[in-house]
Amino acid sequence: MITINENYLKLQASYLFSDIAKRVAAFQQNNPGRDIIKLGIGDVTRPLPPACVEALHAATDEMANEATFRGYGPEQGYAFLREAIAENDFRSRGADIAADEIFVSDGAKCDTGNIQEIFATEVKIAIPDPVYPVYLDTNVMAGRTGAFADGRYQGICYLDSVKGNNFVPDLPTQPVDLIYLCFPNNPTGSTITKEQLKTWVDYARSNKALILFDAAYEAFIRDESLPRSIYEVEGAREVAIEFRSFSKTAGFTGTRCAYTVVPKECAAFDSAGNKQLLHPLWNRRHCTKFNGVSYPIQKAAAAVYSDAGKRQVRELTDYYLRNAVLIKKEMTALGFVSVGGDNSPYIWIDGQGRDSWEFFDMLLNKAGVVCTPGAGFGKCGQGYIRLSAFNSHENVIKAMERISQALQ
Ligand code: MLT
Question: Is the overall model pTM greater than 0.85, yes or no?
Answer without folding.
Answer: yes
